[in-house]
Every structure is written in structure tokens, then in C-alpha cells.
Amino acid sequence: MTLSKLVIAGLSAIALSCSAVSAAPVLIGNASLEGVSLSDSDMQAVLLGKNVSLGGKRVVIVVAKASDGQENFLKSKIGKTGSQFNNHWRKLFMTGGGVAPTQVGAEADVVSKVSSTPGAIGIVDDSVAGGLPVIGK
Amino acid sequence: MNITTRYNKIGATLLIAALASSNAFGAGSWKGIQFGGFASQGYLVNSGDNDYLGETSEGTFDFREYAASASYATGEWRIGAQVFGQKLGVYGNDELALDWASIDYQPAQWLGFRAGRVKTPRGLYNEALDVDSIRPFVLMPQSVYDARLRDFNASFDGVMMFGNVAIGDSNSFDYKVYHGDIPMKVESGANDYFNQDLPYPNTSIGMDSATGGSIFWNTGLDGLRLGYSASVFDNFNMDREVSFGPGFPPVILNRGTQDYKRQLLSAEYSVGDWVFAGEMGRETALYDITDADGNSFDIFLDFEVEYAYASVARRLSEKFEVGAYYSYSMETQVSSDGVTAFPDYEQADLSVSVRYDYNYNLLFKLEAHYMDGSGKIFSTPSYLQPVEDRDGSWMLFAAKTTYTF
Fold first, then answer.
1. Has the ipTM of the complex gone over 0.85?
2. What's the confidence (pLDDT) of residue A11?
């Protein structure tokens, strides 16, 4: 392998690595939540339904039916798998403790729903967040 | 239109609405109103002649539950309701009833108010006893969560204050404090539970008020929470029709206590695909026997029940989950007259369960119990099962399927 090929391969690896870093799941919010910034404990409270308002708006949690990024985010931020998260909300919803998250198909649908719903939040890869505010990461 | 018919129509409407559109959270929606519910059918059979949760010595399909709920939230407000029906042996009778119907106002994370018919906070799982889809067990540990006392334990009519108080970055407390009333019926498992000591039927049962709450510490160790629950039933009492023999007209005596107290310590640790839980508690009451005019016979009954369980559950895969628990209870009652003797009621229950999720909505469960003791068998005036006639060592098998929508 020539030196130039080694350099190109190295640069490609760095680029891919940078891309992987930037492809981190984040918590986005509707434009009405511009300026809101949540700590880990704030995110936990919101995602578990303990805090139902943000920026004066009722929180509407939007989740994708299946998303690796969302799964990883839930595990790292609230310590629950997707299945445990669903069970938590099933329990709340069926016992009069809260209104369940809105489920959509994929991350693009999360962005679309969050974009059109005041107070909505959702977990997506930051590369697809568009212009929506990132309120937690 | 009577109330039952009205509830039936409400339930059917909610059911249709929920089936029309649903998502994985068990919640469909229409114009911002979320709908959901579940329906389950089970089978119970045990070895020997004990009849435990119905006619289980012969095997029974009288073991089912179903519910439909609706909720709507806007701003700091939420309103919702659920209708529920069940058949568990002679209890429930497939009649729909209002399980919970409440309105919330939550102006802050640390402060919220809920009023109406509200699920009773008690321990780790009391509020979600009916939600089969969140655990592998068919029967929750009966020492703490007796299925026959569901009506008594499920909800109260009154008000509750609740909230989550953050302490630093990684600790917080969930609290719930309530006051209200628990409506009780003579045709209920709770009435039978409190009508076992003497062969005279209760003609009424009730209390002036119920006050209690729970506090849970969400510790800095991810997945670990510790809690304490307590409640007091004020002026809890029951009237009994007592016969002193042929030729004597029956008289009404009252068995009542100023304070029926319950306490429960709880711990749950959820790590990865494992959930470990344990709870232990105690209930006490000092009953006074009075005549219809409230005159005391100066006979006091010192009642105490202690219970505990430890459980473990593990999600093996997307399709399978297993669980096991050991549950124990001991109930005693001592009369101050020094003459009347009541047996101790002791029972230990070792259980293993397996759950299969056909898909997100439909699940199947199988469970086996080895019972050591028979203290939780009911012996009531209408269905006597004296302690000396019971099997002391026996097996109980349970199967259940639940559809959640």
C-alpha cells in the first residue's frame, strides 16, 4: 500500500469516526421549547412523566416504534430498555397516572410530529434534528 | 337506564374506540383523547381439596379481567377514567365498575393534586395490580397483593397530593398522600376476608375514612428504589348477625376498630434485564365488640398480620420472560376474654412463572406454586373450610392470556 493510500485510509477512518460521534441521539423539542436546556435528571423526570410541563407547555413525548438511537438514549439517560420504558408508560396510562407517549414509525416521523406539536419532545439522531431545538443530550 | 347498563355501554364504546387505533403503549387516540385497555382470561387449578381463588380444587376458568380507559391532558390538567370488570371465583361477577376516574392538576414537578376515584398508592405494585403486561407473574405475591381483596385495595374516593422532589443530580423522592373513603360491599372478597373468625355473616362493612400514602427514594444507584407505605382506616367496622341458638332471635353485634393500620416497606432493583423486588409489611387492629347501641362487651380482639415476599424476574428475549418469588404471611387474632381461641393462619408460597409474548399486544403465562400451609384459604359463613380440613401442603397451577390494546 502506498503512503498516499495509507493517508487516504487514515483520513477516511477519522472522518467516519467524527461522523459516528456526531450521530449521537439527542432530545429535541418543538420550536415552542426554544431555549429550554435539560440536565440528565430533568430529562429523566420528563421522560418518566414526573414533570409534565416544559416552557409553560404540556409535554407530549413522541417516540419511534423502533430506533437504536432511542433505545441507547433511554438506557443511558433513564436506565430503562425500550421495553421497560413502554411498561412504565403502560402502567401510568392504565392507572390514571399520565397520558402515554405518542408513537410514530421512524425517526423522520418523530421530527415531523415534534415539529408540528407544541410542547412535543422526541429522541432522534442529531443529524436529522433539522432546525428543531436540542433540549437535552 | 341502570348504572350497570350505562357502564356496559361506556365500556363497549371505549373498547371499540381503542381497537380502532392503538399503538404499542396500549393507547390509541382520537382528537387528543387516548384510549386503551386489556382483556385477560385465566385458568386455576390446585391439588387436593382446598378451594383458594374460587373452586380451584376442581379447576376453574372463573378468572378473568378486562378494562377500558380514556385520558386527556392539556396544560397542567389531565382527566381520565377506566371501567373494569372481573370474575375471580365468586367475586366480581363480570360486572363493570368504575375503577378510577380522576382529574389532575400538576403545576410543578414537586406538586400535583388528583381528585376523584384514585388508584391507591401502596408499595411497589398496588396501583398496577391489573396490568398483566408489565410482569411475568400470573398472580402477584398473595401475601401482600391478595387478588380477592382487589376491590378493597384498588382505589379510594377522595383527594391525593403527589410529586417528585429532586435531591441533587441523582436522587429524588416520589411522594403520594391521600385522604378519602373506600366503598365496601358485603358481596366482596374483602368482606369475606374480614368475616372468617366466627361463623356469623357480616350484614354491613365500612369505614369513616382512609388516610395514607407512600414515599419512594429513587437512589443514586440507577434502578434502585426504596419505599415506605402506610395507611389508616378510621372507624373500620362491620355489623354481624349473631345467633345464640334455637329460640333466640338473632342480634346485631358490631366488630369495629378505631384504627386499622397498614405499613409496608419496599425495595426494587432493576438492572439490565433483571428486576429484583422485596416487600414486607404488617397490619394491626384492636377490635371492640359492641351491641347495636354501641355498648361494649369489653371483649377486645387483637388482630395482626405480617407478610413479606422476595421476587426476581428476568427478560430472556423479546419473546420470553421468567420470574420466581417466595411469599409468606402469618395472621393471628387473640381475644381478651381468654376463652375464645382463633387459629393462626400461616402460608408460604414458592412460585415460578414463564411468560411468552406472541406480539406486543398478546401474551401467555404459565405459573406453578408450591404452598406450605393453608392460612390464606377463606372459611366464611357461606362456605366453610375449617383449618383442620385443609390440605397443608399443596400445588397451585395458573395459566393466563392477556390482550392489551
1. yes
2. 44
